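Subgroup meeting minutes
Present: P.N., E.W., G.H.
Scribe: E.W.

1. P.N. recapped why we're keeping a running log of single-chain structure predictions: easier to compare across weeks, and new members can see raw inputs and outputs side by side.
2. G.H. added today's entry (385 aa).
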Amino acid sequence: MWWFILLFSASDFISISVAQIAMAGLIVCWVGRWVSEKKVPDISPLGVPFAVFAMFSIISAVLSLDIIESIKDSKDLLHILIYFAAYDFLRRYPTKTGTVFRVIAMAGGIAALVGMLQVEDRGVDVMNRISGFQNIYMTFAGLLMISTVTAMAVVAVNFRKWKDIWIPASIAIMVFAMLFSLTRNAWIGTMAGAMTLAVLRKPVLAIALPAIVLVILAVSPSNVQDRVGSIFNPQDSTNKERLLLWKAGAKIVADYPLFGVGQNSFPLVYKKYRSPDVLEPHISHLHNNFLEIAVERGVLGLISWTTIFVMALWVMLKAWRRQKEDPETKMSITAGAGGILAFLTAGFFEYNFGDSEVQMLIYLVMAGGIAAVARKEPSDYGINP
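Output recorded in log:
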């Protein structure tokens, strides 16, 4: 299980095929362990909300406007098993979570470096964005967002001087690669994650953080500065397009409230609800996690999905308040909470839950945070460390 977790942590930034092979190996080992031990795995505290979300997702697929396509798309539910397998392992061996997070920070830095090298060929161009090892710049920026917040948590809470001296450099490369990717949702998500770390670690840093961001922007290319400015411009064509898209999504939810139209079936109904003013009449998703899930899986699916992350945050932040927790535990909780808030915040402006690589990575980081709260020593399982 340990080697598969490490392989997944590194390969998710490079190849989804290798990452999914690692995921499959991890899950097989996890199931094999419980079969050999003849025990039922402990999947609390998120077992019930994950099960309810999976149940509503399957119901939505069966009742879908395109049953075959929705059932095929439901294979992403298998990614949930990454959380449970990693949670089980890291709860048994909590000191290994730090290694996992450092591998994520290193893999993110390497991917970001590849992206920075692409700037020489592509420039900083919104029509030809850098994407690292990924085919899509949005996936690239989403992965860097989670990796950056995770690496920041390691530096903020459990920095090991000379051993971790490379991590700040990795963070810097990832931040600039994200900036040069011109992916606004990842910028906003990273800021939300960083603010979470600041508030948990040292609240005064939350005041200094905006100043740091302004300095970074001051030395960034004009294309980056213009892109940042567009976030606050209501006349920006992309912003106007998103608002029209979201209005159409709200109308679909109103007409299909309980179970939605089914996974990957949004394009089938969008033409009926889209505004005549849209610039892009054919689009595959709503650029918003909450609306997309409500449209595909209904309000019940959205509530159960949101409950997963709200409960995870509640469990971790409640544990954070116990001052007796050691730095390793606090690092895991900080990374988990920061990663979730970055993911959810970015998800207001992009359907990042639809990116398999991003979805799988947030499950792993969240597993590390929850495992730290419910940590068990190996001896509690009859294991000789």
